[in-house]
From TrEMBL:
<protein>
    <recommendedName>
        <fullName>Malate dehydrogenase [NADP], chloroplastic</fullName>
        <ecNumber>1.1.1.82</ecNumber>
    </recommendedName>
</protein>
<keyword id="KW-0150">Chloroplast</keyword>
<dbReference type="GO" id="GO:0009570">
    <property type="term" value="C:chloroplast stroma"/>
</dbReference>
<dbReference type="InterPro" id="IPR010945">
    <property type="entry name" value="Malate_DH_type2"/>
</dbReference>
<dbReference type="InterPro" id="IPR001236">
    <property type="entry name" value="Lactate/malate_DH_N"/>
</dbReference>
<keyword id="KW-0934">Plastid</keyword>
<keyword id="KW-0560">Oxidoreductase</keyword>
<dbReference type="InterPro" id="IPR015955">
    <property type="entry name" value="Lactate_DH/Glyco_Ohase_4_C"/>
</dbReference>
<dbReference type="GO" id="GO:0051775">
    <property type="term" value="P:response to redox state"/>
</dbReference>
<keyword id="KW-0809">Transit peptide</keyword>
<dbReference type="GO" id="GO:0046554">
    <property type="term" value="F:L-malate dehydrogenase (NADP+) activity"/>
</dbReference>
<keyword id="KW-0521">NADP</keyword>
<dbReference type="InterPro" id="IPR001252">
    <property type="entry name" value="Malate_DH_AS"/>
</dbReference>
<feature type="domain" description="Lactate/malate dehydrogenase N-terminal">
    <location>
        <begin position="100"/>
        <end position="247"/>
    </location>
</feature>
<dbReference type="InterPro" id="IPR011273">
    <property type="entry name" value="Malate_DH_NADP-dep_pln"/>
</dbReference>
<feature type="domain" description="Lactate/malate dehydrogenase C-terminal">
    <location>
        <begin position="250"/>
        <end position="420"/>
    </location>
</feature>
<comment type="subunit">
    <text>Homodimer.</text>
</comment>
Length: 442
């Protein structure tokens, strides 16, 4: 790997100085593939340390003295007062231990909305410092540098590090969360089988990298489409990571379903609960109005237009993304970012009593009779520890079962298309007479 050496700058920005992992060397090494954007600290004496505290009022920089010698340099910016001392590193005691979060496709539109939510504390909480590890391509590296500069200029106190790179084996080192957003979109005339193969290669490689260098209990959320099968490919290439730790994003579909039910019932959307999306993140997905509730009452008792529920409601959720593109001329990047936030918060926050959420998870051992060895969206609950359990007390009638079976069949067909990427032999792709679309495709 080509390396370049840069002389240490004489000054640093307040944000750069706030990093909890400041380099001790007198030079900053800059890799073409993995650029550490945090600069080294100001030169100090060998007996100094770094700590972060909250100042009650602003004050000018002062120098602490001991035996007549200047020992540390204290600088206050707004409410944050930083004391530098390289002898030891003292964490802010009121904050949790720093966590590493990887984001692929970090220069894309979805990430452009998501990264600032992560850095602000909106996702993991106001006392959780984070390090962002941003993965891009060779083509996007300059854009990725621009993203990192914006994060730097935003002065988020919880954002302790920003690293960017194009090698997943470097970017995924020790990460506890991996948000895999980057994927090739399906273009005009591209068959779904071709999209499965192209993106499947990406997620096979990323699964291998996670398996090699990530935290053994890393939580992985796959957003890049086709996300269910991409998540399956990723977990099959990461045998050292529990299969239960892999998720495919169907939270946006859940949010869309809640919105449609709230509009029809004339209530605010927070009155809608127990909303499940079953199956694949495609137009075969099944928004479950049978088990959903409005103000704690079954939806079918509140909305008596059952024909609308079976036809209008279901189709509006399945095709919402495509309609948005037709209206606005762009994909639903902002609402996708919000749904990623919601999906993570559902895992790190205890689920309200009696409620549940939707996420695409590994089907082995599921209580619904769905084929095993798939990633399938199902209802889940969490204790807030990053883990989840499947909800067992759900009703599945003949209407629901028939539609779930259709989405299941589609995922089984997709699985055959990527057998060469999951270690299951030669791929055979037959998606049937109807090549179903992903939400948002036109």
């Amino acid at each position: 790997m080509a390396m370049a050496e840069l002389s240490t700058p004489k000054t640093t920005s307040p944000f750069l100085q706030s990093s909890s992992r400041l380099r001790l060397s007198s030079k900053l090494h800059l890799s073409n593939h993995f650029r550490h954007l945090l600069l080294p600290p100001l030169p100090t004496t060998p007996n100094s340390k770094i700590s972060c505290s909250v100042s009650q009022n602003s004050q000018a920089p002062v120098a602490a003295q001991e035996n007549g010698l200047v020992k540390t340099k204290k600088e206050c910016y707004g409410v944050f007062c930083l004391t530098y001392d390289l002898k030891a590193e003292e964490e802010t005691k009121s904050w949790k231990k720093l966590i590493n979060i990887a984001v692929s496709g970090a220069a894309g539109m979805i990430s452009n909305h998501l990264l600032f939510k992560l850095a602000s504390g909106e996702v993991f909480g106001p006392d959780q410092p984070i390090a962002l590890k941003l993965l891009g391509s060779e083509r996007s590296i300059q854009a990725l540098e621009g993203v990192a500069m914006e994060l730097e200029d935003s002065l988020f106190p919880l954002l302790r590090e920003v690293d960017i790179g194009t090698d997943p084996y470097e970017v995924f080192q020790d990460v506890e969360w991996a948000l895999l957003i980057g994927a090739k979109p399906r273009g005009p005339g591209m068959e779904r089988a071709a999209l499965l193969d192209i993106n499947g290669q990406i997620f096979a490689d990323q699964g291998k990298a996670l398996n090699a260098v990530a935290s053994p209990n890393v939580k992985v959320l796959v957003v890049g489409n086709p996300c269910n099968t991409n998540a399956l490919i990723c977990l099959k290439n990461a045998p050292n990571i529990p299969a239960k730790n892999f998720h495919a994003l169907t939270r946006l579909d859940e949010n869309r379903a809640k919105c449609q039910l709230a509009l029809k019932a004339g209530v605010f959307y927070d009155k809608v609960s127990n909303m499940t999306i079953w199956g694949n993140h495609s137009t075969t997905q099944v928004p479950d109005f049978l088990n959903a509730r409005i103000n704690g009452v079954p939806v079918k008792e509140v909305i008596t237009d059952h024909k609308w529920l079976e036809e209008g409601f279901t189709e509006s959720v399945q095709k919402r993304g495509g309609l948005l593109i037709q209206k606005w001329g762009r994909s639903s990047a902002a609402s996708t970012a919000v749904s990623i936030v919601d999906a993570i918060k559902s895992l790190v926050t205890p689920t309200p009593e009696g409620d549940w959420f939707s996420t695409g998870v590994y089907t082995n051992g599921n209580p619904y009779g769905i084929a095993e060895d798939l990633v399938f969206s199902m209802p889940c609950r969490s204790k807030g520890d990053g883990d989840y359990e499947l909800v067992k007390d759900v009703e599945i009638d003949d209407y629901l079962r028939k539609r779930i079976a259709k989405s299941e069949a589609e995922l089984l067909a997709e699985k055959k298309c990527v057998a060469h990427l999951t270690g299951e032999g030669i791929a055979f792709c037959d998606l049937g007479p109807v090549d179903t679309m992903l939400p948002g495709e036109v």
